[in-house]
Amino acid sequence: MTKRLRNHAVSGLRTAGLAVALMVLAALAASPARADRCDDTAKQLAGAIDGLKIGITAANYIYLSHPAAKELSLGCRGQNFSIELYAKTDRKPKPEFFNLVASAAAVIFTVPKDDTATGTSRCIKRMGILRGDKVSMRFRRLNMECSRTKTEASIVVTRGKDE
């Protein structure tokens, strides 16, 4: 009789384990699919900025397009940053470009637009004879790196992983 009770107890444990496994599987299957944080941010940008279109996604970068920029991309989860905004335009940026970068950085990093506008314009305008064609600066907990060639200027705005 003890052998029979032991077999019954083992069988009960197997059934309970199977039931728990099925509940966990059902809970995972029932939860809605969650989009990546980077995709959510890109959708917020498209909704907040007129004329911004979402392009292809490749290797943690979402390529965006806007008439004020030659190139525009949103990068997610790099080695030293959690999220990155990259924008490129002509060597002499127009006010529309500054407005685009300031608006995008304000949405991405949840910083007031006035602060991002000040930081991006300072970074790009600092490039020149005295400071050279590559300027790195920090403004309002954002890292900004501006560079230019003979025909183009670009800015990369990031926030470190530890912030």
Tell me the quaternary state. single chain
By secondary-structure content and strand pairing, the structural class works out as: alpha+beta
Average pLDDT reading = 79
Strand ordering within the main sheet: 1-2-3-4-7-6-5
Distance from N terminus to C terminus (CA atoms, Å) equals 65 Å
**Total tally of structural domains:** 2
Report the biggest beta sheet as strand number plus sense, adding barrel if it closes: 7 strands, antiparallel
Number of helices: 4
Q: Regions with pLDDT < 50 over 5+ consecutive residues?
A: 18-35
Gyration radius, to the nearest Å?
Answer: 25 Å
* Approximate helicity band: 40-55%
Protein name: Excinuclease ABC subunit A
Keywords: Signal
Signal peptide: 1-35
Description:
By secondary structure, the protein is an alpha+beta fold. It folds into two domains: 31 residues; 124 residues, no CATH class. The protein is 43% helix and 32% strand. It contains four helices and seven strands. Strands 1-2-3-4-7-6-5 form a seven-stranded antiparallel beta sheet, with helices on one face. Strand 2 and strand 3 form a beta hairpin. Helix 2 crosses helix 3 and helix 3 crosses helix 4. The termini are far apart.
Give the arrangement of secondary structure elements.
Elements lengths: L1 H29 L6 H12 L4 E6 L2 E6 L2 E8 L4 E10 L4 H15 L3 H14 L7 E6 L2 E7 L3 E9 L3
Antiparallel strand pairs: 1-2, 2-3, 3-4, 4-7, 5-6, 6-7
Helix pairs in contact: 2-3, 3-4
